[in-house]
Amino acid sequence: MFAEASELPPVVIRVRETAQHTTEHPAMDDYELMAPFYDLVNADLTEDLPFWLGLAAKRGGPVLELGCGSGRVLLQLAREGQRAVGVDCSPAMLARARARLAQRADLGQRVTLIEQDVRALALEEQFPLAIMPLNTFAHLLTFEDQLLALVRVAEHLAPGGWYALDIPNAAEVFAAPPGGLVLERTVRDELSAREVMEFSMLSLDRTAQLGHIMWVYDEIDREGRVRRTRIPMTLRYTFPGEMRALLELAGLRLVGLYGGYQREPFEDGSPRMLVLAERPARG
Q1: What is the C-alpha separation between 70 and 98, in angstroms, rounded?
Q2: Structural domain boundaries enclosing 129
Q3: Strands of 253-258's sheet, edge to edge?
Q4: Three-state DSSP class for 227?
Q5: Do 163 and 77 belong to one domain?
Q6: For the residues 23-52, what does the mean pLDDT come to?
């Protein structure tokens, strides 16, 4: 027997519409609705931390993190004794970073948070190391915006300074067969006693090198009521040859291309593309 409609737990749906990120039309805050879920579903995401911490240990601080979000990497840098400057264009994510920082008074003197768009980056400081972890660069949706951002990054690197970014391997993304809605993970929020299910669905525009992602979050309370939040997001996938050209045009030199966080060689089948570039000490 099927339950009567009146007996079924209600489903509340929230939808966020998003716009193309272009220089003429500044990006909307894609993370406004995602912010409450981000730390919860990414609590176990630590596999990339040794890569960033290793770079910081080798180059020294201060470290500039672009797209610092809620401070997942930034606060870890501070815990390791580095002075870190975090830049993000999302007020919602920066608010969460400030809240996390408020719980660690010992880190307050080491961390600075700034709301800026990387394409218009204007800081009164140069850095020995700038980083863009976990897909930040992919939020720049045109070649022109990517180049503009890299030019701004180069301006904020000290001579001989390093810049590193982490994005998906475009070839692997484009080779994947079409798929439907995928359950990414299920987590429990102990504070609210709710279960959160994270789903994603990817639609590819290979000509434009864009992936249109629909993130779906189902929050299930004690009574079994479901609140669904749908958040559309778009990423741009960059190939190695294009990345080399972008770096050169921005005045940066490619010094390393890796397929994983252990600095594995980048090759067919690599899940990630980690890029390490340098601002030449001269010229």
Answers
A1: 8
A2: 35-169+238-278
A3: 111-115, 84-88, 63-66, 127-132, 157-168, 272-278, 253-258
A4: strand
A5: yes
A6: 78
Q: Please state the rounded mean pLDDT for residues 175-183.
A: 87
Does residue 12 register a pLDDT over 50? no
Taking only the tens place, the pLDDT of each residue in 232-242 is: 999 999 999 99
Q: Judge contact between 238 and 167, C-beta under 8 A.
A: yes
Are both 161 and 216 inside the same structural domain? Answer: no
For the chain, the domain total comes to 2
Angle between helices 143-155 and 240-249 (to 10 degrees): 50
Same domain, 191 and 223: yes
Domain co-membership, 205 together with 273: no
Q: What's the angle, vertex CA 33, arms to CA 190 and CA 35, rounded to 5?
A: 55
Q: What's the predicted TM-score (pTM) here?
A: 0.86
Helix and strand element counts for the chain (H, E) = 7, 12
- Answer whether 269's CB lies under 8 Å from 260's CB: no
User: In the sheet where 182-189 sits, what is the strand order?
Assistant: 11-15, 226-236, 210-220, 194-205, 182-189
The pLDDT, as a whole number, for residue 283 is 53
Quote the DSSP letter at residue 2.
Answer: P
Question: Within a domain: residue 26?
Answer: no
Which among 264, 259, 262 has a CA at the least distance from the CA of 274?
Answer: 259
Residue 38 near residue 68, CB atoms below 8 Å: no
Per-residue CA distances from 213 to 146, 192, 221, 260 (Å)? 20, 27, 26, 23
Tell me if 30 is assigned to some domain.
Answer: no
Residues 242, 231 share a domain: no
Question: Nearest Cα to 76, choosing from 40, 99, 35, 104?
Answer: 104
63-67, 103-107, 121-125, 206-210 — which is least confidently predicted? Answer: 103-107
Given CA atoms 247, 252, 255, 256 in this order, what sign does their dihedral have? negative
